[in-house]
């Protein structure tokens, strides 16, 4: 290329487009190596011809020479703040939206009684910045500062990958000032803190602080390494471009110009009711979002109406920050106990002074394990930050060390105030309570607590001897996603176990009214004694009215009776086999169809199934190899439990081909390719494999072991017993769906997401959460976001609801 100016222009445009595809659309069109190659070419050309470097050159993304200080920038249009509204939650999680209704009232009265449309969007927890573009090129970026004067952070903002250096698409205005928020994604924050820890440097308290610290670096090369992110939320002024009439149009226009918007997390509604429903939905989604938000912002949609409403002091009358309940709060650790889980896992738990956080009163928080507890150095008496995000178990985030009770304080409270002697300063600074250590014995059954090499989790070695493990196993068995026994919650089961009425699963099905009545009376009695503490048995106590013990017992028995014919997958999940979650249980049910098959399935065949690796297969086979477990299942069947059979939709003939299971035989190490050759040699028959003919020496060696020979005949018998592929197809199943992977995104017109998922699975398809090359179909509805874009970029087939139904052979 002998025209460097032309080539520089070409490379600049190309690289900016690639960066946009990668960072904003999340759909790269070229491999990273290609980007890097062109980037280096541009760097070299710019170094040779500095005068030709363009103002939107992507080479600025890596940062430049450190500044002595930031220049001040006066904001032409002041950067204002928002007034807040809160919606307190009651103990059932219901929101009280009085403050938002009051806002709506104020707005409507300001508009002479008219009902405005509202836009609701995330309130990003980052830093506000203002970006000025002239002729489409980013000219200046400034922080909010005091709202009138901010700091010039142009060099730093240019390193933010999803900030366009030149506006694209749409109608590019002569001048535009875009406002938005700079933040750090949760994942980038975690990675940054990990790096900081590894380098022995100070950790950032939260993504907001990390974003602020990174943006306000005099050395923009540091900012460049910090991976910041920008979301646009308004246009402060513009000249020579289109003039949107509403805030929503403004957002769409910003997107056209190349800015990122919070995909699927904003919307426009005709009134407050829609806004509030969206807010409640977002409060549930909040923990799973890739970035932190501390509320939603609700804005009057029409720009004319915004003008009509105007401002009051420093905040607009047409917008409000609708905050979420606090997720973090301070409280004091009263004790540290351990909890024993279903698998014996021993977890330290902080007992806390009750504190209201994230909409509920929290009294316990997990400390995860001994190592974590020591790393955070949580001790009795400490003031700690507790955090509760969504449905997640509350956790202790960190200790406020300044408030740790020290020896001297104890002496004072012990009444030793008059102590004449000055204690040496070391003793004064000694913590009152020692560093936390797990007990050596299980507090429930007294068995030893053991920890396997390299495992963070310690376990009680008592197994089924341990009452806590039995109780947890039963709680899991009865839980909603397992046998779903109505009326039998954690407290009821703990009581049943504590009183010796129930030991094993089958005992539940042998309970009768007198036994339950007895239990209830004992429990109520012990609750009148203050020492035993705890809330009363709440289930079965509808509307605060106490039920008679007989009625209560009848209800529980009805719940138990109703659970007797579970789906096979639920039953398998309920058994509490290690590593068998809902998904694995579903795969097992789909592959075998009946409990009888699952409980006899040979390990190498299990290991061939999708979603089941060797560890899980081993765990399943090991579970069913134990005579006690088989006896436990027989007892359940004898007590009237009868899991439903189901059509086989993951047929072994498809997943467990001979070369696959041969390559998964215990103690016979081989690849699938070699196993295929072996199968070929054996004349593609079990008789050939098992028979005494030559094949290869290693195989003969392996096959000679009696246990291995027995395993082979088990596999043979098992496979002969399984229905063939044709029979295996479910009635509704069809080859367009069976074995295919689907991804659902957006809102479908009539089907709920779990309905669509159930229909696909019933026809033998799989539903996955993310789009990849292996995805067969993406089913896209309203407000489908990045998954749809990714599908289009990868050339994956996209269906709407009607097309999905057609594929599933469902009319209408
Ligand atoms: S609009 C005149 N929209 O909240 C209205 N602000 O308290 C100006 N913020 O400094 C703000 N997300 O940092 C608006 N979607 C959003 C926002 C948002 C976060 C921040 C912004 C501003 C503060 C106002």
Written overview of the protein:
Helix content is 39%, strand content 17%. By secondary structure, the protein is α+β, with helices and mostly antiparallel strands. The protein has six domains: 58 residues, Helix hairpin bin (Helix Hairpins, Orthogonal Bundle); 227 residues, DNA ligase/mRNA capping enzyme (D-amino Acid Aminotransferase, Chain A, domain 1, 2-Layer Sandwich); 116 residues, Nucleic acid-binding proteins (OB fold (Dihydrolipoamide Acetyltransferase, E2P), Beta Barrel), CATH 2.40.50; 70 residues, 5' to 3' exonuclease, C-terminal subdomain (DNA polymerase, domain 1, Orthogonal Bundle); 154 residues, 5' to 3' exonuclease, C-terminal subdomain (DNA polymerase, domain 1, Orthogonal Bundle), CATH 1.10.150.20; 68 residues, 3-Layer(aba) Sandwich (Rossmann fold). Strands 14, 15, 16, 17, 18, 19 and 20 form a seven-stranded antiparallel sheet that branches. The chain has a five-stranded mixed sheet with strand order 2-13-10-3-9. The two termini are 60 Å apart. About 5% of the residues have low confidence. 2-(butylsulfanyl)adenosine binds next to strand 3, strand 8 and strand 13. One of its GO terms (biological process) is DNA replication. It comes from Neisseria dentiae. Keywords: DNA damage, DNA repair, DNA replication, Ligase, Magnesium, Manganese, Metal-binding, NAD, Zinc. Belongs to the NAD-dependent DNA ligase family. LigA subfamily.
